[in-house]
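Narrative of activities, Objective 1.

The group set out to show that a structural description can be obtained from nothing but a protein's sequence at a throughput compatible with the screening campaign. Below is one input-output pair from the validation batch, recorded exactly as produced.
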Amino acid sequence: MPLLALAAGLVVAGCGAADKSTSSSPSPASSASAGQTIKLSADPGGALKFTKTTLAARSGKVTLEMANPSQIPHGIGVDGNGVDVDGPVVGPGKTSTATAELKPGTYEYYCTVKSHHQAGMQGTLVVK
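Output recorded for this entry:
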């Protein structure tokens, strides 16, 4: 009887090891759908502007990732060609992101704090 229990334990352990090796391999679908990330920053001095006024991207899934080094809350959004996506407003030292499927064309990116956008905190994103 103890020999039978030992054999059953080895079979279970063997199955577990096989499952681990199968699940650790990356799936091609997840890496293909990753898209591209474009990094930018709010003005570190607190001005209502971004450090870049023009961005370029390839069509497909695009993520704008805005670092906020200033003491003023900011967010990132993108608008145009039927797209209107807003990331969260974040405080100092945080990052706001906005992700969208973008077709070729021209888009506006902007601060999601309405008064900042109205004050001109925006830029142009060209997608090819």
